[in-house]
Task: inverse folding
């Protein structure tokens, strides 16, 4: 069931359309419903529809939703992909016109850095003070801005960029930025290629339009045919990738690029409550140069957001953990109803310590837990070996076997962890390590024999054990 604004966005199919979709307003649903409407109601062939998004994950989600709404054969003919995947398809069919072969190689970040290191040494010698990571970022920025080596800040970087491009072409290789640059060049320089793709994709949709850069905008304008059937979906209030080259003017000045565009605003939010949306609206309205929107929700109620200042990170972590604990203990709120967001991975340590102290189960998403790091596991395992009775005080929930201290694999990880823990061997390992620590002290005690802490030599007689090992005798095993 679509709301009125969503239905307008779905049924407005001819000419340029700008859909301003606030957070949580169902934009993905609108795009998939719009594709289904074009095929079922407007009788558009699936192969004539192109939907572009920014990540493979988003493209796969959109493809799955669309396939559920259409017959399988219709969904298979749709082109739902990222900008880079679309450019690969175009270049595989026409890159020979630019002096490359069709079986070109796409360099990943590692390949790119390797080539740059060699180029920097070739241009500036071994003493050249140029970071290949920085050089790669500068070259990428110039390419996305549609500029060449002459736009580099100095002659040395100009030579690096020029020779880098020559090396790529000699290897019949391109980097990720070249996929966009060469595709735009192919469409701009060869009218027959441009018109062929315009006939193929009569209806074009672009998701997350606020994150497009100037090069992607030029590529889009070349792909759109004379009918101008292009629909872009985005929200200028969510534009956060300016540091990565995103050009907010693409969405703010859309009507300048595509005159007569219809504008549809999706403002009904299905994700948050009105108190949260009211606070968000109040904050974002102070942002200059934005398109006016007012998010709202049909759902009633909801708690007001709280802003709480803490003197330090430990107090902040304790407060958060206490809030979660009290909610679970007093109001029976399930653990998995809580989420804690933080800005940097390094901030997880204090939060994890506070949660472990209160035995609150958690999992870290999108990163590695502080206590799952190899060096931390090693230290905790040593402490567990030395103080087996205090394991829960040393590291609550730490379940790794005590064998970690034995021959760690320097290439990463310990093969012993792939097998179930051997409890008997763990005890023997602890005893052996403790004997190593205690034996020097025992030998300094003149009242104890030199073989204290060791098994007697074969043939010494008696049952095998430490000297004085009998009931009531304060013999060698008292050391342990």
Result:
């Amino acid at each position: 069931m679509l709301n009125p604004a969503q239905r307008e966005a779905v049924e407005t199919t001819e000419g340029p359309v700008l859909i301003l979709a606030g957070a949580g307003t169902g934009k993905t649903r609108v795009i998939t419903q719009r594709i289904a409407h074009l095929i079922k109601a407007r009788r558009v062939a699936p192969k004539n529809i192109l939907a572009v998004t920014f990540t493979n994950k988003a493209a796969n989600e959109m493809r799955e939703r669309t396939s559920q709404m259409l017959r399988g054969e219709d969904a298979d003919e749709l082109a739902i992909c990222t900008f880079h995947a679309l450019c690969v398809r175009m270049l595989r069919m026409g890159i020979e016109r630019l002096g490359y072969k069709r079986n070109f190689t796409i360099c990943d970040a590692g390949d790119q850095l390797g080539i740059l290191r060699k180029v920097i040494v070739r241009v500036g010698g071994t003493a050249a003070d140029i970071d290949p990571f920085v050089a790669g970022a500068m070259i990428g920025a110039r390419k996305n801005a549609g500029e060449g080596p002459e736009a580099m800040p100095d002659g040395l970087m100009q030579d690096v960029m020029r020779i880098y491009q020559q090396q790529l072409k000699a290897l019949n290789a391109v980097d990720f930025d070249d996929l966009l640059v060469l595709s735009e060049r192919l469409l701009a320089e060869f009218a027959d290629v441009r018109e062929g793709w315009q006939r193929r994709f009569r209806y074009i949709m672009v998701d997350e339009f606020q994150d497009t850069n100037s090069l992607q905008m030029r590529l889009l304008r070349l792909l759109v045919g004379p009918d101008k059937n292009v629909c872009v979906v985005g929200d200028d209030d969510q534009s956060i990738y300016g540091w990565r080259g995103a050009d907010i003017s693409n969405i703010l000045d859309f009507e300048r690029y595509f005159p007569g565009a219809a504008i549809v605003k999706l403002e009904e939010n299905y994700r948050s409550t009105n108190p949260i949306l009211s606070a968000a609206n109040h904050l974002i309205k102070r942002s200059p140069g934005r398109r006016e929107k007012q998010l709202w929700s049909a759902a009633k109620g909801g708690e007001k957001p709280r802003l709480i200042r803490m003197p330090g990170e430990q107090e902040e972590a304790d407060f958060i953990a206490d809030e979660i604990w009290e909610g679970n203990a007093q109001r029976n709120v399930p653990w998995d109803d809580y989420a804690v967001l933080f800005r940097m991975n390094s901030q997880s340590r204090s939060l994890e310590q506070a949660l472990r102290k209160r035995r609150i189960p958690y999992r870290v998403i999108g990163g590695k837990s502080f206590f799952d790091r190899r060096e931390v596991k090693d230290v905790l395992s040593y402490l567990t070996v030395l103080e087996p009775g205090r394991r829960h005080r040393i590291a609550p929930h730490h379940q790794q076997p005590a064998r970690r201290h034995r021959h760690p694999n320097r290439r990463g990880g310990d093969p012993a962890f792939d097998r179930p823990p051997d409890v008997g061997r763990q005890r023997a390992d602890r005893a052996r390590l403790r004997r190593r620590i205690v034996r020097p002290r025992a030998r300094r005690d003149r009242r104890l024999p030199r073989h204290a802490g060791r098994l007697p030599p074969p043939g010494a007689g008696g049952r095998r054990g430490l000297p004085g090992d009998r009931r009531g005798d304060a013999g060698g095993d008292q050391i342990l």
